[in-house]
Write a sequence for this structure.
């Protein structure tokens, strides 16, 4: 084995717990999926355990194994768009050192976030969901006033739902447009 | 050690093969003394205490039915209570009995053997074939298994290798091996699909090949679907027809059943090759009046296709799943590789062509490609300097099943997602739930169900030797590792002190170290009845 490479292995193994996943794959933060894949292939060529399967030194095999498992871990998180976004926020934040590895807590947070978004789309209460669905149907049919009523009712159940509010604003804008111009309401 | 050699062994449900790759020469499949390149995975225990393995042993399925074990791979690494074992018990002429810890054993004559011991005899034959062909001892091998095999099945396969006196350098997935044989040294960048329909299992792997890197993007499979199921359909048809004509059910007699099975397999091969099959089994049984009855039928391609259409469609459901996991569509695939004997059937080739909108690759022998890939990998693992000589190839494989731990109320929680690249490790922290608790037990599963009963149990681990404190105070970090063989290792440490805890496995279908040692000795004592027919 090349002594220079062996030194590299030792240095990387020592620094492993200080590196974020971008560092493990030797790419800048914000790298594109194609760059991530290319880096993964490049690092695999260097640290794949098969290369060292016949190496006589068991300590070297163990060290390389540890590095490669981390490379796989990094790739698993970074190849997933949602996880990568979350991870990038985590390691850019103040808690960087404790967030270097994507653990079950982060995994759960990503899932939670996804669930929240899904629910926001449709509403969190049965009545809210039902009324929102009605509103969408009314919008489809172009009955703006009916849609407005449904959305206002939906907001009575879920007053904080941003999606409902946005939709209501959009509908009210439409109503505004269809209202005849110049024929303002006047008090005689 | 440049003169060290290692072979690649395709340990199949119905047939096995052994291949070697040395230096710069392309891999070659090794033939036995009669020039046979694939060998029936059948083990027949003879009167004189020797064991016959291979195509000659297959003839004994009928004449020495109780002492001839076949399709052992269907049982390997399974629990006694599993459906597959129940099914095997009803159709296999040999005796399947329960061993310790819900394991499966077969009883032949007065011997009781664990399934890895049976597979070890097949491996021993492969080793002997290689040794005869190469004229030297063979001690190391890469053995293949279906991509969709779980940890229990992989561990059992590895044990089989050890029992046969082989150092198993690696367990690799059959579709991955096929992809390696296809892409090795070709300098291509492609997305390929390996459609592997074997005797007893079906696997699909989607790979991206980037020159020397073979990345498995996803894998999916069905361990209950294979060529045998095609034979079964023909058998059922033949038996129903015979029942109608003569009022006798051939399936009631295990001897008749074996003849029927043989006829079914022959008919499938013939109908695939010639478009029509003449089935004729003289004297398959006797009527109550004492008349000897023949089984005679004609099967044409249309009839056959109708019989198996739903099986063929099931394979494409699995393809859909694999493509979806890889976030690709059928149109993104650059090449389709067919593996396994049943893929010679025109109905499979045509359906694959239709599904992928392209002809599958030709010039690849579906029976030999897996052994060749395993041989390439064996050579690479042996050779430290392969990378420098530009002969390296890197297999980036994935785990086919999600790894889970059992939680309260019969539920499970996912630890490692399926299709995650391996080797990988992941930790989870557990806390004690009682004051003064001195042991923590966790059950580990593999599967895609939230419920424990919908998953395969790998084992129950018990951790002891951590600090004792009030409940919730002691945190135990459990690390789950899946190694390059796809085999799961679990270890635990006290999170605060870093003190490693001792781990014991309470439940496991596998063999203990002691069992394996005993089996190694027994295997070494068993003589192969080589070079002669039964």
């Amino acid at each position: 084995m090349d002594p220079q490479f062996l030194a590299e292995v030792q240095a990387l193994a020592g620094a492993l717990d200080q590196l974020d996943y971008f560092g493990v794959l030797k790419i800048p933060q914000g790298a594109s999926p194609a760059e991530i894949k290319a880096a993964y292939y490049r690092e695999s060529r260097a640290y794949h355990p098969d290369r060292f399967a016949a190496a006589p030194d068991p300590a070297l095999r163990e060290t390389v194994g540890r590095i490669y498992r981390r490379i796989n871990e990094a790739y698993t998180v970074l190849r997933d768009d949602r996880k990568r976004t979350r991870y990038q926020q985590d390691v850019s934040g103040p808690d960087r050192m404790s967030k270097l590895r994507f653990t079950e807590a982060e995994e759960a947070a990503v899932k939670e976030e996804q669930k929240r978004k899904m629910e926001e789309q449709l509403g969190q209460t049965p009545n809210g969901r039902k009324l929102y669905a009605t509103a969408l149907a009314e919008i489809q049919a172009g009955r703006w006033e009916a849609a407005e009523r449904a959305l206002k009712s939906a907001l009575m159940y879920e007053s904080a739902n941003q999606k409902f509010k946005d939709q209501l604003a959009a509908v009210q804008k439409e109503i505004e447009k269809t209202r005849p111009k110049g024929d303002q309401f006047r008090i005689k | 050690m440049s003169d060290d050699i290692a072979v690649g062994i395709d340990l199949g449900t119905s047939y096995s093969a052994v291949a070697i790759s040395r230096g710069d020469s392309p891999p070659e499949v090794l033939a036995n003394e009669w020039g046979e390149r694939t060998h029936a995975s059948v083990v027949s225990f003879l009167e004189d205490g020797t064991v016959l393995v291979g195509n000659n042993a297959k003839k004994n399925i009928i004449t020495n039915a109780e002492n001839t074990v076949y399709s052992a791979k269907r049982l390997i690494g399974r629990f006694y209570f599993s459906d597959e074992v129940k099914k095997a018990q009803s159709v296999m002429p040999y005796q399947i009995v329960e061993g310790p810890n819900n394991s499966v054993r077969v009883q032949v004559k007065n011997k009781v053997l664990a399934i890895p011991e049976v597979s070890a005899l097949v491996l021993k034959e492969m080793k002997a074939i290689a040794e005869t062909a190469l004229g030297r001892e063979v001690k190391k091998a890469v053995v293949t298994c279906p991509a969709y095999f779980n940890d229990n099945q992989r561990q059992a396969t590895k044990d089989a290798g050890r029992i046969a006196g082989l150092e198993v350098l690696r367990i690799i997935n059959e579709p991955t091996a096929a992809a390696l044989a296809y892409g090795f040294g070709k300098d291509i960048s492609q997305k390929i699909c390996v459609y592997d329909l074997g005797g007893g299992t079906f696997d699909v792997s989607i790979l991206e090949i980037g020159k020397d890197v073979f990345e498995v993007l996803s894998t999916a499979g069905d361990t209950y679907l294979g060529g045998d199921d095609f034979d079964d359909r023909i058998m059922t048809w033949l038996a129903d027809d015979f029942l109608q004509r003569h009022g006798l059910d051939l399936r009631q007699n295990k001897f008749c059943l074996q003849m029927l099975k043989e006829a079914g397999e022959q008919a499938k091969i013939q109908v695939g090759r010639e478009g029509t099959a003449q089935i004729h089994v003289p004297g398959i049984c006797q009527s109550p009046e004492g008349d000897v009855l023949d089984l005679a039928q004609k099967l044409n391609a249309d009839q056959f296709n109708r019989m198996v259409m739903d099986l063929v469609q099931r394979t494409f459901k699995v393809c859909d799943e694999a493509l979806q996991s890889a976030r690709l569509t059928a149109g993104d695939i650059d090449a389709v590789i067919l593996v396994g004997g049943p893929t010679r059937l025109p109905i499979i080739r045509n359906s694959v062509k239709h599904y992928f909108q392209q002809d599958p690759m030709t010039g690849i022998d579906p029976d030999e490609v897996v052994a060749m890939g395993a041989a390439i990998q064996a050579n690479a693992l042996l050779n430290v300097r392969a990378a420098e000589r530009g002969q390296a190839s890197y297999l980036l494989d994935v785990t086919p099943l999600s790894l889970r731990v059992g939680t309260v109320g019969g539920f499970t929680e996912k630890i490692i997602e399926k299709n995650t690249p391996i080797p990988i490790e992941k930790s989870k922290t557990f806390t004690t739930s009682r004051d003064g608790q001195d042991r923590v037990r966790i059950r580990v599963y593999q599967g895609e169900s939230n419920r424990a009963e919908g998953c395969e149990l790998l084992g129950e681990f018990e951790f002891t030797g951590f600090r004792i404190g009030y409940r919730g105070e002691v945190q135990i970090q459990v690390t789950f590792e899946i190694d390059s063989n796809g085999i799961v290792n679990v270890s635990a440490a006290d999170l605060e002190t870093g003190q490693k805890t001792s781990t014991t496995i309470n439940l496991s279908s596998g063999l203990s170290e002691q069992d394996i040692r005993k089996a190694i000795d027994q295997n070494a004592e068993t003589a192969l009845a080589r070079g002669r027919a039964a």
Observations:
- The interface with chain B takes residues 1, 40-41, 44-45, 48-55, 65, 68-69, 72-73, 75-76, 103-104 of chain A (CB under 8 Å).
- The mean pLDDT of chain A is 85.
- The longest helix of chain A spans residues 58-78.
